[in-house]
Amino acid sequence: MSLKKLTIHFQEMGDLFQDINQAIDSHSAFVDSPDVINFDSIDTYRSFMTSNKANILSAISKLKPGSVYELATYLNRQPQHVLADCRSLESHGFIKLIQEVGGRKPIRPELAFDYDVIMIEDKGSMPLAVSERSERVLADAISEVRAV
Amino acid sequence: MNPVKKTSITIGKDGFKYKIDISIEDHDDKDKYPEGVKAVFKLIRLDINDENETELMVLIDNHKPFGFHSHDKLPEDHDFREPLHLDDWKDAWKIFQEKCQEILK
């Protein structure tokens, strides 16, 4: 079974607007795929995706926490800091924060969709393994390369 | 028309990250959208404080009874609407591009 990918695509604002204008002029559809997130540059993406945020994505995928509090416990971090990172991941499109009903109404984090790996459309960037399965696949790939 | 739905994250001249959110699509409800097109253009500032909250900086849309209008007092006043007196969503799209250039570049 192949890995489900979330792709990070880069395009500057001017080029994006130009492409939209072309689509409008040529009456073509121009719609984001749900498995793509657009940034203007690799620098913007790198300044966003800190190791803390990458760890959050990995923990959500592997441990399926029922709340941000539970996620913070797994990560051994302060809940308010984890919640802030989760809010940022949500506004950028990487996760969803679901307000549960009943009881103390916990906020449950989940991936925007069930992706295994983040592929970055930049030659110098490694894929970011999110799920356990993708870690295994990437580790196997690296050992194969080293063996050659 | 064929739909246009694009979102992109970009860095502004103030160092904040912004989300550009563009949606243009046909709409059957001619009463709400007399042109038959629903157009929503948003510019959202991201991670504005320690809690990483967001704030809407530009919102241009065209629902009835206002027609095309811009929410010009964002983020403080979401209910303030400045009519744009436009008949064509393409003109609203041009205004949105200009506002993005103004804020981001």
Give an overview of the whole structure.
The complex is a heterodimer of chains A (about 150) and B (about 100). With about 150 residues, chain A is of the alpha/beta class. Chain A has a single domain (about 5-140), classed as Arc Repressor Mutant, subunit A (Orthogonal Bundle). In chain A, about 45% of the residues lie in helices and about 20% in strands. With about 100 residues, chain B is an alpha+beta fold. Chain B has one domain (about 5-105). Helices cover about 15% and strands about 35% of the residues of chain B. A 6-stranded antiparallel β-sheet of chain B has the order 1-2-3-4-5-6, with helices on one face. In chain B, β4 and β5 (about 70) form a beta hairpin. The model of chain B has no long low-confidence stretch (mean pLDDT about 85). Chains A and B meet through α1, β2, β3, α2 and α5 of A and β1, β2 and α1 of B.
- Structure class of chain A: alpha/beta
Q: Report how far the terminal alpha carbons of chain A are from each other.
A: 25 Å
Helix count of chain A equals: 6
**Count of DSSP strands of chain B:** 6
Mean pLDDT of chain B: 86
What name is given to the CATH topology of chain A? Arc Repressor Mutant, subunit A
Strand content of chain B: 35-45%
Give me the Rg of chain B, rounded.
14 Å
Strand order of the largest sheet of chain B: 1-2-3-4-5-6
The CATH level-2 architecture of chain A is identified as Orthogonal Bundle
Distance between the termini of chain B: 30 Å
Major β-sheet profile of chain B:
6 strands, antiparallel
Helix content of chain B: 10-25%
Largest interface: A-B, 32 and 30 residues
- For this entry, what is the oligomeric state of its chains? heterodimer
